[in-house]
Write a structure and sequence with these properties.
Number of helices of chain B: 6
Distance between the termini of chain A: 86 Å
Low-confidence stretches of chain A: none
Helix content of chain A: 25-40%
Low-confidence stretches of chain B: none
Number of helices of chain A: 8
Number of strands of chain B: 1
Largest interface: A-B, 49 and 56 residues
Shape of chain A: elongated
Oligomer: heterodimer
Structural class of chain B: mainly alpha
Radius of gyration of chain A: 34 Å
Strand order of the largest sheet of chain A: 16-15-12-17-18-19
Strand content of chain A: 35-45%
Chain lengths: ~425, ~170
Amino acid sequence: MTPKLGAYAGLAALALLAALATRRPELVVVAAPFALAAATGLLLARRPGLDAAVELSAERKLEGEEVDVRVALFAAVGAERVEVLLQLPRELVMQDGKNPVQVRLADGERREFTYRLRCERWGAYRVGRVYVRTHDWFGLFRRELVLDRRVPLKVYPSEENVRNVLRPLETQVFVGNHVARQKGEGIEFADLRPFVPGDRIRHVNWRASARRGELWINEHHAERNADVVILLDSFAEARRGDRSTLDPALRAAGTLAARYLREKDRVGFVTFGGILNWLLPTTGAVQLYRIVDAMLDTQIVLSYAWRDISTVPRRTLPPQALVLALTPLIDDRSEAALLDLRGRGFDLVVIEISPLSLLPEPSGEAGELADRLLRLHREAVRGRFERAGIPVAVWGDETSLAAALEEVSAYRRRARAASA
Amino acid sequence: MTTAAAALIAAAAVVAYSDLSSERLPAVIGSVGGAGGALMAFALATRWRSVFPFGLVLVGASYGGFLGVRNGAVDEWAPAVAAALFVAAELGFWSLERSPSRSEVVVLLRRIAGIAAGAIVTALVGSLVLVVATGASGGVGLEAAGVAAAVLAVAAIASLASRASV
């Protein structure tokens, strides 16, 4: 019941009493519309019967893409004015469609509303909570109901543009796309050797054999796959407004996982932080969906518990795996864990998601000093990593992920040349 | 905004009619009506719903005052005044609705048509009431019916108030 009903009834009663007191029929005339509206409203009042169905044009979308939401409203018992509001998370921004909207629904009528949403940020959402408010003809009664018809919508992080991924130092025994150091079946030429019984004729190098007067055989590098573990540091994040170091980290994780899986590698995923999550390395497109779904559950949980690498299940980190650590290098625990990982002989690469662009401009002497100290501390951490033989690539606003990976490749090439 | 302005114009029309047509105490009638209009404007500006009806009451009171100081003749413009008050009330409550919803054109047109129809029905019913009232000879029976109507109206208010408090 709205205050309007009380006001109309009060006005009518007051005017009628005044009419009686003053014996003026004109005041009855003044009272009449309010009394009639209140009485008619009371007589015609009924409870609307509404139901809704919500449908998405797609259950999975990438960041920045658009998705259509169709809300169908059925009215077994209609109402003169129906306000419809589709509740939306902040990360889904309305591009097209009126929300909220006020419509009329007759008895038995079905209306469909289409909204076009832009997925601003990755995440697992549930869309479809519809708030409905109905009004009768005179606006004397108002009813509100919530129709919870939520359906899941997964918004995956958008992919970074990466042409070449890092080549693992060690390959595994299964067939893949990486040229192994070992010799075996493949197409990449490795060496020449004299013929031994059992060698296939098609491997004979006829030119070398003619020159040397005996049969020589071409040897090839085997083509194998590799184990890659993407380790996401979720101890802490730097955040400013809607921007966070976690977002580019997840975009990089998704991109790298997709690229390595395309190369037939086994890819695992570990979220190392307040909450430890892991996915055992395996191959195939299904693994990509598993990884991306695991990424959507990733969140920064504040924890003071000291956690080292021994808490990660052993099978998650297979020997000779390439471990790609995505970290903002904010928390000492992740630094210690990464150094520990390197100490255990893993082929570790650190991709630093620089939080510096998220910091406010330093103001005052103390602010500038703090800024310098922070930068020096980060340099010192990088220095410790490099002394341990861990390449560190800084990925920030100024560089692309591809450039950061290329930097690591160059570092590894230089390191190989130096060791040779 | 448009509905609020229209509501104030309708109320101002009632006050202006009462004030200009009054032969006695026009300053008092104008003051009461002016206070009512100001209260309505204040309620509409601050979106204070509970204050708005008091503004309407004061605007109605200015018309009541005009009728009180008037000699015995029935005011034949009463149906128009009632219609104007009803339109002012409807438009005022419309503008007080705190709804961010964008209405469809059909809904808007139906609502405007409904208010217009209400005003026309008010004028017609008012004319009928005036005809009946001036034609009736009066008497104890009619007076009793009037008292009963007023008691029923008060009972209806009490009933509504109890429903609202539940």
